[in-house]
Design brief:
The complex is a heterodimer of chains A (about 110) and B (about 110). Chain A is an all-beta fold. Chain A has no helices and 11 strands. In chain A, strands 2, 4, 5, 9, 10 and 11 form a 6-stranded mixed beta sheet that branches. A 5-stranded antiparallel beta sheet of chain A has the order 1-3-8-7-6, with no helix packed on it. Chain B is built from no helices and 11 strands. In chain B, about 35% of the residues are buried. In chain B, the strands form 2 sheets. In chain B, strands 2, 4, 5, 6, 9, 10 and 11 form a 7-stranded mixed beta sheet that branches. Chain B has a 4-stranded antiparallel beta sheet with strand order 1-3-8-7, with no helix packed on it. In chain B, strand 9 and strand 10 form a beta hairpin. Classes of the chains: A mainly beta (about 110), B mainly beta (about 110). The interface between A and B is medium-sized, with 24 and 23 residues.
């Protein structure tokens, strides 16, 4: 069964700290890994990773994929209270079509 | 550009009633996905369509759930009869065929009493 596991499930840090969120996947016919941020509403897209070892960066957020270890990390530096959200990781399968398998998410809380 | 549009945003109904959720994908997107999100099970794919055709409905929990996509700009997810365990947030997402990024609508929060 295809599975995506995230850790930790919950994380509380102080503003200004750096955090690392982890995602591991067991996905047959793996194609790519996606990160989403979910605040109170819908998940919003952050990154899509297809190649191992190539970092994707957007402001204070960055992510990298390790296909050998079947894992990915999402880093957030100089955290702000606005970074508080649930971060979702999802594996994309090739099954003649697109199918995302989501992890259970990491709930990140940034305290001022 | 308008994103994915869902209606209603909130629905409260009684057990046994029929519930219909609606979705309008982003214009030009030809893949549409219905997800359900609960605290216990997280975000689960229910069904997805490509070019209005259902491709994979293996995530649909049981026969009480059905989904249709009569045209490229509209889809419905119907639950009949509804049960309290169907209470969840239902998301619709769309993407362009061949791309991996899915864009989510605001969701419908369903409460079945």
């Amino acid at each position: 069964e295809d599975k995506v596991v995230q850790s930790p499930l919950s994380l509380v840090v102080h503003e200004g700290d750096t955090v690392t969120l982890n995602c591991s996947y067991e996905v047959t016919n793996f194609r790519s890994l996606l990160w989403y941020k979910q605040e109170k509403k819908a998940p919003t897209f952050l990154f899509m990773l297809t190649s191992s070892g190539i970092e994707k960066k957007s402001g204070r957020l960055s992510s990298i994929l390790d296909k050998k270890e079947l894992s990915s990390i999402l880093n957030i530096t100089a955290t702000q209270t606005g970074d508080s959200a649930i971060y979702l990781c999802a594996g994309m399968l090739i099954q003649g079509a697109q199918k995302l398998v989501f992890g259970q998410g990491t709930r990140l809380t940034i305290n001022p | 550009d308008a994103g994915v549009i869902q209606s209603p945003r909130h629905e409260v109904t009684e057990m046994g009633q029929e519930v219909t959720l609606r979705c309008k994908p982003i214009s030009g997107h030809n893949s549409l996905f219905w997800y359900r999100q609960t605290m216990m099970r997280g975000l689960e794919l229910l069904i997805y369509f490509n070019n209005n055709v259902p491709i994979d409905d293996s995530g649909m929990p049981e026969d009480r759930f059905s989904a249709k996509m009569p045209n490229a700009s509209f889809s419905t997810l119907k639950i009949q009869p509804s049960e309290p365990r169907d209470s969840a947030v239902y998301f619709c997402a769309s993407s362009q065929w061949g791309t991996d990024t899915q864009y989510f609508g605001p969701g419908t929060r369903l409460t079945v009493l």
